[in-house]
Specification:
alpha+beta, 3-stranded antiparallel sheet, 10 helices, elongated
Length: 281
């Protein structure tokens, strides 16, 4: 056997011909994030997201890396055997599970595009959010509350259309005979939520949300038939999926809700313009 043909040389040649980037994690048709993984994205718990996707990532990466290394190593060794008229079967066996094999593996890991995360997110349908706006301490407790007061309390504009929607919602809730807490009901794009700043105190805007008034601990209440017109602000840490929020989910209360029926935009707050952004004085 030629002394120049070593497993170190084999590793070097494989690395030399590697592409700049690889999609090592394959997202199959039908793959999507689990409800727990989506809930982690909603509340900005990225550490939990990576923990929950670690097994999927590791298993897919390992299979892709093994396939790439085995294919490239076999091609190179076949070429060497033709050039040298030698049998390098033993060299291939020595390379397998060696430090040099692991060196190539690390190179491939470093070249992983990471695009699988976005692929999984894009394959996942919109998620239903339930975001607290009137907590238990500020609930309407057996009082005859007026639409204008609720609109003011949740910081929605008091317009003719909003008053009508709120009056219809209150009529279904019977606040004089019950306890009403308030939650924004939002069907949100998972990718938009993934792109948000995860700093807990950061505020985000929700455009034209629905409102649930009721008691999620007893499973009573009503979701507004129509979205309200207006932009409201909540802290990033307040975002929760319907299932991850306290109490009965509205999907459990109503049954068969679809996030697309409550579509609203969740977006970061645009930076305030500064003097330097305008025309020079």
């Amino acid at each position: 056997m030629s002394a120049t043909r070593t497993i170190e040389q084999l590793a070097n040649e494989i690395i030399e011909q590697l592409d700049a980037k690889y999609d090592l994690v394959y997202v199959d048709r039908g793959d999507r994030l689990t409800d727990d993984q989506v809930a982690a994205i909603v509340k900005g718990d990225m550490d939990s997201l990576w923990e929950k996707t670690d097994e999927f990532e590791s298993e897919s990466q390992a299979a892709s890396v093994k396939e790439i290394i085995e294919s490239d190593a076999k091609d190179i060794v076949n070429r060497w055997e033709r050039e040298d008229d030698e049998d390098y079967t033993g060299l291939l066996a020595d390379f397998d599970h060696s430090d040099q094999w692991e060196r190539v593996q690390q190179e491939l890991w470093d070249r992983d595009s990471g695009g699988w995360v976005r692929d999984l997110i894009n394959a996942t349908p919109a998620v239903l959010l339930r975001i607290n706006v009137i907590d238990e301490d500020h609930a309407y407790d057996h009082v005859d509350v007026q639409p204008e007061q609720v609109l003011t309390d949740v910081k929605l504009p008091v317009t003719e259309g909003n008053v009508r929607i709120m009056a219809e919602t209150l009529a279904e809730c019977s606040p004089e005979f019950s306890v009403l807490m308030g939650y924004w009901i939002v069907g949100a794009d998972v990718g938009d939520l993934f792109d948000l700043d995860v700093t807990p105190e950061t505020e985000v805007e929700i455009v034209n949300p629905h409102l649930y008034l009721g008691n999620p601990f007893t499973g009573s209440g009503w979701i507004s038939d129509d979205p309200f017109e207006g932009v409201v602000r909540v802290k990033r840490e307040a975002l929760r999926s319907d299932e991850d929020q306290f109490g009965y989910s509205v999907d459990t209360i109503y049954g068969g809700l679809n996030a697309s029926s409550f579509t609203a935009t969740v977006r970061p707050i645009a930076a305030e313009p500064t003097e330097s952004d305008g025309d020079p004085k």
